């Protein structure tokens, strides 16, 4: 019976998460947050179910299976967090394109937008997943920043006196902007 | 033999016996005298399978063997509620027997003293639950039967999923703390917990 329950919960979470990832942009970030929180509730209910098994022998046997299921639900929730990050970055394509290739170098706009999204997410998502989401968002931003830096270096290398232009960007200022922005969002 | 004739013959056979209801008699005997009714028959009875598929069966009623060459109908099908109660009663019965056995042996040991070389206390009350071997069959019927718990919870989860996918954003609620959620997990777990009780989850599970 418990195995049947585990199977049903796994199938339900997988279907809901797949739909949220596929159509997250259309449904809005609120819906994706709700799916993440629902994953959290499923995990709590599973833990509670195992905790209430009276027979110790049965509980020990079921714990391994339910732990695996809990891990699978956590992975599904993480995929939803990635979708939330995609939503946050979806309106920033034009600004990301300016990094290291134009004097505009709109990193401040990018950071402000992401911090704004983070403050929305922080209110709508459980703390446990917010920490994960915040960390993933910072990781994505730094990755994009470095990718654009490498792309810029490559571009200016092919020009006659291009490499010097990279040095005109203030990396320390960029780092300060990112760190301060994320520190403010996580207060 | 036509279907109508078979049915009328079955009806005559049933009414010609001394017992008021032949099938009631069969049912009781299926329960308490499995030597007389094959395991196949017992399993079919528990699963509510159509015995027509298995051809005629012979059953014993009051020490006489009646050959049922007619196509016997399904005696009856146990519903989920009946199976559930049956499982619960069987566990209670088994636990009670083990408890009696253990208590009795402890009392005897305390009175006659424990003698490891001549320990007769374990043989004094040798209780056996002869219905216990049927538990896997009953549990299988409950979980994987034609309309068993597995199918029921799958249908329920499918319905909950369809509702959520149909309503999308309109099903999103917000707590006073600002956390977004949907009602799908609580709806689903209400039903799952009800089914889980039979797995020895205990009364405290209602807290969830």
Secondary structure layout:
The complex is a heterodimer of chains A (187) and B (208).
Chain A: H1 2-27, H2 29-51, H3 56-90, H4 93-96, H5 107-124, H6 127-157, H7 163-166, H8 171-185
Chain B: H1 3-16, H2 22-32, H3 39-47, E1 57-61, E2 64-68, H4 80-112, H5 135-144, H6 149-167, E3 173-174, E4 180-181, H7 184-196
Antiparallel strand pairs in B: 1-2, 3-4
Can you characterise this structure?
The complex is a heterodimer of chains A (187) and B (208). The mean pLDDT of chain A is 85. With 187 residues, chain A is mainly α. The N and C termini of chain A lie far apart (45 Å). Chain A has two domains: 2-84, no CATH class; 93-185, no CATH class. The longest helix of chain A is centred in the middle third of the chain and has 35 residues, at 56-90. Helix content of chain A is 83%, strand content 0%. Chain A has helices spanning 2-27, 29-51, 56-90, 93-96, 107-124, 127-157, 163-166, 171-185. In chain A, helix 1 packs antiparallel against helix 2. Chain A contains eight helices and no strands. Chain B is mostly helical and 208 residues long. Chain B folds into three domains: 3-68, no CATH class; 79-129; 148-208, no CATH class. Helix content of chain B is 52%, strand content 7%. Chain B has seven helices and four strands, in the order αααββαααββα. A two-stranded antiparallel ribbon of chain B has the order 1-2. Chain B has a two-stranded antiparallel sheet with strand order 3-4. In chain B, helix 4 packs antiparallel against helix 5 (135-144). Residues 6-57, 68-75 and 203-208 of chain B have low confidence and may be disordered. The A-B interface holds A 1-2, 4-5, 7-9, 11-12, 15-16, 19, 23, 27-28, 30-31, 33-35, 37-38, 41-42, 45, 48-49, 52-55, 58, 123-126 and B 139, 142-143, 149-150, 153-154, 157, 160-161, 164-165, 168-169, 171-174, 178-182, 184-186, 188-189, 192-193, 195-196, 198-202, 204-205, 207-208.
